[in-house]
Fold:
Amino acid sequence: MGIGIVTATYIAASVLFILALGGLSNQEKAKRAVWYGIVGMALAVVATMFGPGVGGWSIILLIPLLGVGAFIGMVVAQRVEMTEMPQLVAALHSFVGLAAVFIGLNSDILGTHGLVGAEIAIHEVEVFLGVFIGAITFTGSIIAYGKLAGKIDGKALVLPFRHLLNIAAIIFSLILLLMYMNHSGSWTLYLMMIIAFALGAHLVAAIGGADMPVVVSMLNSYSGWAAAATGFLLGNDLLIVTGALVGSSGAILSYIMCKAM
Structure:
């Protein structure tokens, strides 16, 4: 499949995703909007699988993996009651975050071959942000799922100086970013990943179970930005557009929910 066809397919998928997001605001159009999203995702998967840089054994490996994943997703979704939908969404967000972490680590292993000057710095920032946002999304979503499912105590975890701990974690991560860009080694990325895992868990654990729906909406936004960062890493325009849509819509929904509460 040529690059022109892939680009056209990505544009069509982006339009369908926008229509899906817009349709979900109206109960009468919601079912049609879901189908827009399904068709858009199918187009995105097919275009990516048969696009430039993918072929041969990659497709042979991808097809059974996609089939297994689709089967598991279908079985799990059918077994979940509508009242349990928030915890399912939280669990799915954790997969997005974990995928962003893995892709970021893979990009670090591959290195910056073929990049020069500012391109190297931009790539390193993309890797760092992808892993950072993905790690926070992963552990935060796991804690949110646990609280919603009753597997974790719904009470807020209030540690002494918890806000200072969060600020210190962010500042230390920024220092590690500067060290990573100064070629101090991959250990800075791995250490930041551990800090981000702890930060994500602490941020959500400090919120009571009654407010978890708002947290899930915020994590939805995080997963979108993680996907957008992954799109920059992979050079995938559709991931960037879709991630930005999910990230911005999740942030707006979180704000609306907070105002309503």
Remarks:
- The two ends are 49 Å apart (CA to CA).
- DSSP finds nine helices and no strands in the chain.
